[in-house]
Design goal:
Elements lengths: L6 E10 L2 E7 L8 E2 L2 E3 L6 H13 L1 E15 L5 E14 L8 E8 L14 H12 L15
Parallel strand pairs: 1-6
Antiparallel strand pairs: 1-2, 1-4, 2-3, 2-7, 5-6
């Protein structure tokens, strides 16, 4: 990666009955770190479509995006500059089935007990905690902020 390169990433919190779905990374650079389903936006891909695609690829679940918590700009644990678009998703179909080459495990975590995770167990802990604080505080924004891909 060159100094000026920026990585566009999407991630999604899937929340059901006060619990959020977390996945445990299986990629070498972030092995055994807990994260939201997430991944890179592919060239020419719409951001909202990318978020749904990543959830499907990593978990087997179909989701409808309902809100965003915002856009986050940070240097990742793998030393990349990241622009992260985070969404809230509602399950609409599919079955929980992990993409084993990238995902080692998953679990539903009670939002009120999330502090039991140690920072070293989380991928980019400050960002994950900031996102979950926004969720718990109800700081959610409409998807209309995002315009579909322009032709």
């Amino acid at each position: 990666m060159t100094q000026n390169e920026i990585v566009l990433v999407v991630s999604t919190s899937i929340i059901q009955e006060g619990k959020v779905l977390m996945i445990k990374e299986n990629k070498a650079s972030v092995k055994n770190k807990w994260n939201f389903p997430s991944g890179h936006v592919e060239k020419g891909e719409d951001i909202l479509e990318a978020a749904c695609r990543e959830v499907k690829e990593e978990t087997g679940l179909d989701v409808k995006l309902t809100h965003t918590t915002g856009i986050y700009n940070f240097i990742s644990s793998t030393d990349h500059q990241v622009i992260l678009f985070h969404f809230i998703g509602q399950i609409t179909g599919g079955f929980l089935s992990l993409q084993e080459e990238e995902i080692a495990d998953s679990k539903w975590v009670n939002l009120s007990n999330f502090k039991s995770f140690k920072d070293e167990e989380l991928r980019d802990a400050k960002v994950i905690r900031q996102i979950l604080d926004a969720v718990k505080a109800g700081k959610l924004y409409p998807l209309e902020l995002f315009h579909t891909k322009l032709s």
